[in-house]
Design goal:
The protein is an alpha+beta fold. It has 12 helices and 18 strands. The chain folds into 2 domains: 100 residues, Serine-tRNA synthetase, tRNA binding domain (Helix Hairpins); 305 residues, BirA Bifunctional Protein, domain 2, CATH 3.30.930.10.
Length: 425
């Protein structure tokens, strides 16, 4: 959500920020609604002040026995009651319209975010590791998993439809091992606190992190008005909602391993083969909540935490700074980590780390009161994949495959696999 005071103070800067996302100017309409709302509130306050004054006069007229004055004043109070009801309704109407308008607008990009319409304008920041050179044609993860007899899309589709998979045997254990490894690293070395959150949330939680109202079609909704989480970012960030926190509570760093559910309504025809784009997938999420002056440094730190996962798994990757047109709705700045996939001979996203500034905190009313200060201020929130477990698994399968279709287990995962060194049929 945007700060209406900043829009009032500098509407041109607000429109320039939206222009970086290729949106038309919005400040005129926003400020018009704001004026209408403030005018209605002003009329309401004036009527209340006048009614209070008349109420005192009514008491005085009654005490004097002046029936004519008493009746005149009562009639005026009745008229003001109608004014109050009308102005209150107008204020509520314009408040709702203003909030709906602001809620539908994305966050303003930071100054160092490249301006561009899509991923073609993203900028590479750094890379790590050299793609492996095979002396044979590498298989993709689907052929590898089906060759092991441990990845089944056909039976998953029979019970659930497209974009679901069944893992069994060694691959199911590999998925669990990856999640355990990520959680252990984040909690023991990176300073995160592990959380086990709900997987179902209400409207206000989805609104707080920016999924609603704009992206309802990309979510799964239950009959009792709850939503399946698309990422643990939603429940983790909402732990801070509607609260004024103490200065010393930050930075707060949380991590969770959860299933994630996405309808993928906007991705028809994309990545229909394999595990890259599923309706249900597992992910280890990182959420950081900080004071304003610390959020930029926290984004760099969070991104390096995700990178360390890929380095220890010996997976070549690159870090991309996303352009304004490729960045998420709630983000001010985003780094994507893209891992090398031999079968596609390209890099594919495996983690996305974003600084949302105070955008989500305003929607959730998450604030901090600094030591010695009376007025609280909004926090800054950040989120990142640390990392997507399914994509990490397929990257391990492809990058560590052997010519006979077996998969060499990376050293860091072997303790979680009972010492197993090679996954074979």
């Amino acid at each position: 959500m945007h700060d209406i005071r900043l829009i009032r103070e500098n509407p041109e800067a607000f429109d320039k920020g939206l222009a970086k996302r290729f949106l038309e100017p919005q400040s005129d309409e926003i400020l018009s609604l704001d004026r209408e709302r403030r005018d209605a509130v002003g009329r309401q306050q004036e009527a209340e002040t006048e009614r209070n004054a008349l109420s005192k006069q009514i008491g005085q007229a009654k005490a004097k026995g002046d029936d004519d004055e008493f009746n005149r004043l009562r009639a005026e109070v009745d008229r003001l009651k109608s004014v109050l009801e009308a102005s209150s309704a107008d204020a509520a109407k314009f408040e709702e319209a203003l909030n709906q308008h602001l809620a539908g607008l994305p966050n303003i990009p930071m100054d160092d975010v490249p301006i561009g319409k899509d991923e073609a304008d993203n900028q590479q920041v750094r890379d790590w590791g050299a793609p492996r050179k095979f002396n044979y044609e590498p298989k993709d993860h689907v052929d590898l998993g089906e060759g092991l007899g441990q990845l089944d899309f056909e039976r998953a589709a029979a019970m659930s439809g497209a974009r679901f998979a069944v893992l069994q045997g060694g691959l199911a254990r590999l998925e669990r091992a990856l999640a355990q490894f990520m959680l252990d690293l984040h909690t023991s070395e990176h300073g995160f606190t592990e959380v086990s959150p709900p997987y179902l949330v209400r409207d206000e939680a989805m609104f707080g992190t920016g999924q609603l109202p704009k992206f309802a079609d990309d979510l799964f909704h239950t009959d009792d008005d709850r939503w399946l989480i698309p990422t643990a970012e939603v429940p983790l960030t909402n732990l801070f909602r509607d609260t004024i926190h103490a200065d010393g509570d930050f930075p707060a760093r949380l991590t969770a391993y959860t299933p994630c559910f996405r309808a993928e309504a906007g991705s028809a025809g994309r990545d229909t083969r394999g595990l890259i784009r599923m309706h249900q997938f597992q992910k280890v999420e990182m959420v950081c909540v900080t004071k304003a002056e610390d959020s930029e440094a926290e984004l760099e730190r969070m991104t390096k935490c995700a990178e360390e996962i890929l380095r220890r798994l010996e997976l070549p990757y690159r870090v991309m700074l996303l352009s304004t047109g490729d960045m998420g709705f709630g983000a001010r700045k985003t780094y994507d980590l893209e891992v090398w996939l031999p079968s596609q001979k390209t890099y594919r996203e495996i983690s996305s780390c974003s600084n949302c500034g105070d955008f989500q905190a305003r929607r959730m009313n998450a604030r901090v009161r600094r030591d010695g200060e009376k007025k609280p201020e909004f926090l800054h929130t950040l989120n990142g994949s640390g990392v997507a477990v399914g994509r990490a698994m397929l990257a391990v399968m492809e990058n560590h495959q052997n010519e006979d279709g077996s998969i060499t287990i990376p050293d860091v995962l072997r303790p979680y696999m009972g010492g197993l060194e090679v996954l074979s049929a």
